[in-house]
């Protein structure tokens, strides 16, 4: 099988998933049709709330930002959808072929057009993930039946430009290239939060695997269990934001119901969990609306007057997971992270020893040169 290594995720261990997500469109197609012309009405749970409970997935082929070739095209054509989804199916079929037992250990560039560039770039060394462990999504994201070219809904499908004077956005890679301390490594690698912002807010698929969730509703709170890194996001209902200055992981979220929609407002995200460089005065508003028996519409709005001229956002639909999620076994301090830091210390020691030897050699060469010069001077004096 094609092997893939996810860069900077050496500490992550995969959990078992009972089944893959199924597309909302396919699931709703099997459901009993509503009365012609009648709008969908979300069922209510025992508390009289719109029922969002269950296991859901946001795995998709649609990227967060629109690929440049689509420019202002917000919706894929049927031909483009067919090409993308057929390529994904071929990728799975090819990736599930047996691995050559004589293949070299080093990563090699993908030899097939069916292997996505991001998977090929991620590696292929011994220890990498075979294709069977990956679940990046096999369908284009459809919102109200429209196959979207991006999750972001700005006119060009891109993040808006930053205001003049706003702090620059972060460089890609998180803790990559930093080996001073475990605290300088990425949150995903440290098993604190998922890479790719699965936990949110806002909540996005990571493009590789474990894009699954469980929504649990009680009278006073909504709980979102995030499969990746086993995060549990707790949203108290009809509460107020904290005023003690504490910035918890995933921020300070409060929620309320507006008709059939759960509205969640989050502030006080920690700097380490910034969103595209924004965190101090960032406010994220999310909306969860059951729009079909097998569809939950997710909408988000990002607002930071210090970073962008005006709020912006996006949307997608959660699809039902045909099964449930299980524990994701990942903890900070497992083998890879100490190994990364120990390797850096060993490399530093080797460089220090090499520098010491080079200095000693330079000193010896200098002394030898001086001695040779002195002998020449003595010889001339005796002539």
Characterize the structure shown:
The protein is an alpha+beta fold and 383 residues long. It has one domain. Helix content is 20%, strand content 19%. It is built from four helices and 13 strands. The strands form three sheets. It has a nine-stranded antiparallel beta sheet with strand order 8-7-6-2-13-12-11-10-9. Strands 1-3 form a two-stranded antiparallel ribbon. Strand 4 and strand 5 form a beta hairpin. It is elongated and about 115 Å long. It starts with a strand and ends with a helix. 30% of the residues are buried. The N terminus is likely disordered.
Q: Number of folding domains? A: 1
- Counting DSSP H or I runs of 4 or more residues, the number of helices is 4
Main sheet, how many strands, which sense, barrel?
9 strands, antiparallel
N- to C-terminal separation?
Answer: 81 Å
Structure summary, number of beta strands: 13
Mean pLDDT: 83
Radius of gyration: 27 Å
Low-confidence stretches: 1-18, 29-35
Assign a percent range to the helix content.
10-25%
Q: H/E element string?
A: EHEHHEEEEEEEEEEEH
Shape descriptor: elongated
């Amino acid at each position: 099988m094609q092997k893939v290594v996810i860069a900077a995720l050496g500490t992550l261990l995969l959990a078992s998933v009972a089944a893959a997500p199924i597309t909302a469109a396919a699931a709703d197609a099997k459901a009993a049709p509503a009365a012609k012309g009648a709008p969908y009405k979300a069922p209510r749970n025992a508390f009289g709330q719109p029922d969002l409970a269950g296991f859901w997935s946001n795995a998709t082929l649609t990227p967060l930002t629109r690929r440049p070739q689509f420019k202002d095209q917000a919706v894929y054509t049927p031909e483009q959808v067919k090409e993308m989804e057929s390529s994904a199916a071929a990728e799975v079929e090819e990736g599930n072929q047996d691995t050559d037992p004589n293949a070299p250990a080093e990563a090699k560039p993908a030899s097939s057009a069916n292997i996505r560039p991001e998977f090929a770039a991620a590696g292929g060394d011994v220890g990498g993930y075979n294709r069977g462990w990956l679940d990046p999504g096999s369908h284009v994201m459809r919102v109200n039946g429209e196959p979207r070219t991006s999750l972001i809904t700005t006119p060009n499908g891109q993040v808006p430009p930053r205001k003049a004077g706003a702090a620059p956005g972060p460089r890609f890679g998180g803790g990559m290239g930093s080996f001073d301390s475990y605290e300088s490594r990425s949150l995903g690698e440290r098993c604190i939060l998922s890479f790719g912002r699965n936990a949110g807010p806002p909540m996005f698929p990571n493009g590789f695997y474990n894009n699954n969730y469980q929504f649990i509703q009680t009278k006073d709170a909504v709980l979102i269990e995030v499969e990746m890194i086993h995060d549990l996001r707790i949203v108290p209902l009809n509460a107020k934001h904290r005023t003690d200055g504490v910035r918890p992981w995933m921020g300070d979220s409060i929620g309320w119901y507006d008709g059939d929609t759960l509205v969640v407002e989050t502030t006080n995200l920690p700097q380490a969990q910034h969103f595209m460089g924004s965190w101090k005065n960032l406010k994220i508003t999310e909306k969860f609306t059951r729009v079909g028996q097998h569809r939950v519409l997710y909408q988000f709005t990002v607002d930071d007057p210090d970073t962008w001229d005006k709020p912006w956002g996006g949307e997608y639909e959660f699809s039902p997971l045909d099964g449930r999620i299980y524990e994701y076994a990942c903890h900070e301090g497992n083998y890879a992270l100490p190994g990364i830091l120990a390797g850096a210390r060993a490399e530093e020691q080797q460089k220090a020893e090499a520098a010491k030897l080079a200095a000693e050699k330079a000193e010896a060469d200098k002394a030898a040169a001086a001695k040779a010069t002195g002998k020449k001077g003595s010889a001339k004096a005796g002539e």
